[in-house]
Amino acid sequence: MSQEKVKQKELFLSVVPKSYLLGIINNKKYLRDELKEMLEFISHKKIINPKRSLNNVSHQILIKLFIEYEILTLEETKDLYLQFRDNKNPIFYLYKLQDEIKEDLKSLKTKLNDLFKTVQLDKEHNFIQTEKEFEPKKRDLLYKYEEFTLINIKLLEKNTILEVSFEYLERIDYLSKNYIPKSVYDLKSGFFWFDKNNQLLIIKCQNTAINEAIISLLGNFFKTKYWKFSLRKEIVDEIFDRKEMIKNSLIASQNTDPNLFNSMVIKDIEFEKKAQNPQFKFLFEYERRSSSYRMDIEGFTNKVKVVIAEYGKISLVGKSLKINLYRKWLINLLIEILEIHENFIKNNDISIYIKSSDFIERTALYEKIKNNEARTKLYELIEKIVVLKENPTVRNINFFFPMNIGYNFSEFVIPYPNLRCSNDDCNATLLCPNKGCESYKFEIKKDIRKRRYYLKCSKCKAKITEDHNLECIDNHKVNFKLDESIDYILHPSLKIEINQIFKELNLAYEIDNNVELFYIRENKLYRKEELNKFIYKWDELPIFQEIPKIEELTDTNKKAQARRITEVLEKCNKRKGECRNCHLKDKKEEICLLWIFASYSNGQAHPHTGTEFGDFEFPQSFTTGLENIIGIAKSYGKKPTENQNPQKIFDVDFGLLTFKSNDNLLEQFFQLCMEGTVRFIMVVSGKEIDTGLKNALFEIARWKQKKFLIITPKELIPIFSYYFANLVNQ
């Protein structure tokens, strides 16, 4: 036999339990003298009792015996390899599919087989679709994993469980004797079970990357979301006997004593008992990341070592573990965990429940929040929102939200500087710390290098990056805390994402975006309800009620007014010294947005000054009383380029104001909302306003209880049409 085949047999037989190999020899019924001769040759020792000696030989000697005397053919050893290779120290990742899969398993068996014939792993270890059955090709770049192939699909347990076995190659890199990097591929294997009755998916695979590739592909195949079980201490201690615990892997909790080790491993069968000793009270500063048990599992003769990892992984330690027995044990275990999840909901243990799976980690919201500390804060935010919704009379709850966290939530919060005196009942605004400045207006800026917010004086541009002793306008000196200087309103997009999490996790909560407002001030989370009408449509204003709707205009007129919007300025070039009295002049060749809206009523157009708010104003009489509407105007500006995502309206390209890029509209709107004398605000824009910015403006208006309406190009078209046809020549 060639050396290659000898080595092949060695590898095949190495995964077969010694007890199984002994059984094969015993079934061969060798004569005593024949067996004695075989053992003496292979062990180089004199054998007196062949039967006893056979039972005492090592696994390695037994394999040599099989090879030397060709007890099994190469094909037979391969069959044994395939039978036993997944029985040694198996590692399982545990998942729950969100939606019920209604298709029968026989049909799924065929479709899965076809699916894996038309996918391949890319360099990022994700499955990608190919046009036809994939044939491996040589390439310059060697991928980490190659040639993922299904080798068997079968139905188990009266067609209620699907077992899919697979193989793939894993690249191993090494240095040759001459220090030249080289690679070889090693064959790996695994399988997964799909339990249709309980919507469970259990993947046995050593490589995390392959495991993630499989679950992602299957999620798309089944057209459902999924989550991985999080085996936290609160769940594990409900199921496993702590007296059987033999090892603990611990990690220091956040915000604990910096003198503690970041992590530690404790091997002690009396861990639980000793942890109660005051001498070891520091252990309570640690969180359990994994634990090991030596326990009884039904069907196994001896105790089995089980390793439980918090991130949804269970390992069984042993050389010959029967697959059918640990499949049954795992499924029963997961069903028990699902019952514990239900009890968390019934007992309102929301904090534990939302951490009992990795569902939140798989959301787009979690992905967009890049910082790990901020991601942890997301869990706390959801928990605190639930507390406030459960207790409507509770106005706020403690919620530490420093500037570095706010920075990492920037897509989902609306920040605004709030520098107020904390001296008794003063609450006056604080002044810039720069000597001689005395400005009380500040801007929020981003420190990209430190990944946090800081404040900047609007007048002298001084930066405030740390705590200060500041003075308020009433001359009180206060200890100013930077992390309490910004208010954060939760953006509607964040509330929508949280509602989706509530829904997917079967939590009976929902934030009413039309009524409920959440904001953070001085490290407290507030909940506020606003039931009064505050959002208006443009045609609800009395001055616009005679204007024909856009549907009533001809296409020619619509296109003409759309072009006109591009030509009208926010303020005309001669505004200095003349803008306030512009409406008194007879000559009106130069028309601006301010003038058009002021001329619809007895308002006055005026530019920004240090003492005035907005760009124009006019009174309107509603059934609820007289309102003075303050307007902010944003003109068309420059024609947008293709890279600026132009919005085409009646053949005209319009620019787009967004939550991130809004031509200072958000700051102006905030300033108006902070003024107690302002009750009704109108935003007029010659550019389109995206949903994110609109929702932010709505949320700020709700927060400060301001009535509000937005007019964008589609509303400007009928307004311009009526103005130029009926008002411009009056």
Q: What would you note in describing this structure?
A:
This protein has five domains: 3-84, no CATH class; 91-228; 233-349, no CATH class; 364-529, no CATH class; 538-727, Trna Endonuclease, Chain: A, domain 1, CATH 3.40.1350. The longest helix is centred in the middle third of the chain and has 24 residues, at 323-346. 32% of the residues lie in helices and 25% in strands. Helix 3 packs across helix 4 and helix 17 (555-567) crosses helix 21 (713-727). Strands 1, 4, 5, 6, 7, 8, 9, 10, 11, 12 and 13 form an eleven-stranded antiparallel beta sheet that branches. It has 21 helices and 32 strands. It is elongated. It is of the alpha+beta class and 730 residues long. Strand 11 (286-295) and strand 12 (304-309) form a beta hairpin.
Kindly state the number of beta strands. Answer: 32
Q: Structural class of the helix and strand makeup?
A: alpha+beta
Helix content: 25-40%
Q: What is the overall shape?
A: elongated
> Distance between termini?
109 Å
Low-confidence spans? none
Q: Could you write a compact summary of the structure shown?
A:
The protein is of the alpha+beta class and 730 residues long.
Question: What descriptive keywords fit this protein?
Answer:
elongated; 5-stranded antiparallel β-sheet; alpha+beta; 5 domains; about 725 residues; 32 strands; about 25% strand; 11-stranded antiparallel β-sheet
List the helices and strands and how they pair.
Layout: H1 3-14, H2 18-28, H3 32-43, H4 50-56, H5 59-68, H6 74-84, E1 91-97, H7 105-117, E2 119-121, E3 127-129, E4 145-156, E5 161-175, E6 181-195, E7 200-204, H8 208-222, E8 226-228, H9 233-239, E9 245-252, E10 263-266, H10 271-275, E11 286-295, E12 304-309, E13 313-317, H11 323-346, H12 350-353, H13 364-368, H14 372-390, E14 396-398, H15 403-408, E15 413-417, E16 442-447, E17 452-457, E18 463-464, E19 468-471, E20 477-480, E21 486-490, H16 492-504, E22 516-521, E23 524-529, H17 555-567, H18 593-599, E24 604-605, E25 616-622, E26 625-634, E27 647-649, E28 652-654, E29 656-657, H19 665-673, E30 680-685, E31 688-689, H20 691-703, E32 707-711, H21 713-727
Parallel strand pairs: 26-30, 29-31, 30-32
Antiparallel strand pairs: 1-7, 1-8, 1-13, 2-3, 4-5, 5-6, 6-7, 9-10, 9-11, 11-12, 12-13, 14-23, 15-21, 16-17, 17-18, 19-20, 21-22, 22-23, 24-25, 25-26, 27-28
Helix pairs in contact: 1-5, 1-6, 3-4, 3-5, 17-21, 19-20
